[in-house]
Amino acid sequence: MAKSKPKKAKSAPKYRRSRGGKATRPRKRRRLPHALLLDAVESVRDYAIFIMDTSGNILTWNSGAARIKGYSEEEIVGKNFRLFYLPEDIARNHPGFELKQAAEVGRYEEEGWRKRKDGSIFWASVVITKLTDRKGALVGFSKVTRDLTARKVMEEQIRASEERFRLLVGGVKDYAIFMLDTEGRVVSWNEGAAKIKGYLAEEIIGKHFSVFYLPQDAASGKWQSELQDAERLGRFEEEGWRVRKDGTQFWASAIVTPIRDDSGRLLGFSKVTRDLSERKRAEDRLQKSYADLERRVKERTHELSLANDELETRSQELREAIRVRDEFLSIASHELKTPITSLKMQLQMLQRKTHPEKGLLPPADRLATGLDTSLRQVEKLNKLVEDLLDVARAQARKVFFRMEKTDLRYLIEDVVERLQPQIDAAGSRIELDVGAVSGEFDPFRLDQVLVNLLTNALKYAPGTKIQIHASAAENTAILVVKDEGPGIPADSLGRLFERFERGSNAENVTGLGLGLFITRQIVEGHSGTIRAESEPGHGTSFIVRLPLRQPMVNEVFG
Amino acid sequence: MSKAILIVEDDHDIREVISEFLSDSGFEVKSAENGLRALELLRAGYRPGLILLDLMMPVMDGFSFREEQIRDPEIARIPVVVMSADGNISQKQSRIGAADFLKKPLDIYNLIQTLNKHLEQ
Question: Which residue of B has its CA nearest to A327?
């Protein structure tokens, strides 16, 4: 640039002088605007402007031409403009073609590569205009050339970049990347789109993208709201089911982005879709196996909780059984040792009063009392041992029944008569309501049942009326022993027939607590049932049902 | 110290035979068939030198009697010898703070020795 300035300064006056030399003075004033124009042309630096004769020989040269092409006016004037062309253009006589075109049409325009003096090339925008005289005959050409190399390079770069981008997008196989116009019609299609959606570019371009949606989504206009959301929010993203060309469905992740020009006008949308079916399936499998796991943990927890409850129940039962056993041992010990204590001391007393060496004996009445007391203790002991043996036998399933024709009424009257002293001692009275009932029973065992039920009533309801009822109906004997005592609390009724159970109000009652247990064993040995009904304050009824005929004789029970 | 003994025992025959034996042996004897009856005698002013106490009794057992006795400063210091058929009697004796214990069946010779031991103190 610094070099070209002095050249321009030198050439400009020279040119003016030569032109001015030919001009006449009187015409000078009239031609003044032309001279100014020439000055202006000469000083244009961004355009090479020059005149050629009909053959393309250069006649004039301006500073822009000198700057762009590198030749000075002296060097180039008189030379042919072919100098500016590349050898291949000269070879095909492109300069001649240009002049011919300009001569025929009046004007020729092109962009193309041209050569500078130093051999370097530049991208030129060229306009050649035909120059004619007043009669229209061709006298030459003007040529205006601009150096557009910078623009060309930039355009090339953009074009290459766009091409690279197009290739990149086109070649992406795992993503469907395509463009939609503002209405949602497909305007571009990449390889990934073809692979994922199954359509070739020529099949789908121009079609509406709603074909990618499930029929119900397409019908409900889901696609439309997606485009609207994308336009409004600048982006729309979702995962959902989409349909391939062959009708199969896949789980897609889709991103829709609006595309706008510089002024913000909507041009269309880009859409990027991924097939996440495999991920979705994996997620579903994971979720399912998690749900399975959760369900199994719940089931197992429930089972464990049930097992734990059962264990807890069993443990309570066991603790209760141990408590009952300990209590029984304590009671049995007390009950057995009381008559033994009495017996032992009675005998020791008699022994103490007996001195054979001195001929001393206890007084006769003392001896008689001692013997009576001792015998009574032995009877008590015998009864207790019998009870224990009954239980032991029942445990060992060794109690046999001897069933025979038995008159229940006779049995009841006999028991009442035998127990009369105890009934009197308790201050109770018996009311009988007994019909003629006879059946196949074991009379000795049934006797034991009656004794147990009656003594039970005397123990727990002393001083009250005791009703005994017996009847027969539908091959079943019914026996009821009802007292008017304090009754049994509901929570104790169920345990009544268990071994070693004694009424909770049994403070003043002695015994092993085996009576009702043995009674139940005997009734069940007759294929019968026994139950108790009670209302606290209104007495207790024991109800025994016995079949009149036994299904089997000598039945074993336990 | 008087040789008065209060027997608290629910079994009639045992009560009778102990009373007879202790009377023969020179003791003053009163008896009660349960704890409540014994408390009544004590609260009426009777002050024996020792109480011979059964544990398992109806109406008021030996444990409840002992609680009531200890609560009443007038009678709390009267020594108590417990008697029981229970195998764990020694534990129960210490639990209720008795002076001594006798296992049933009782032995009359052993009974005399034990009573004398605690009456002398």
Answer: B86
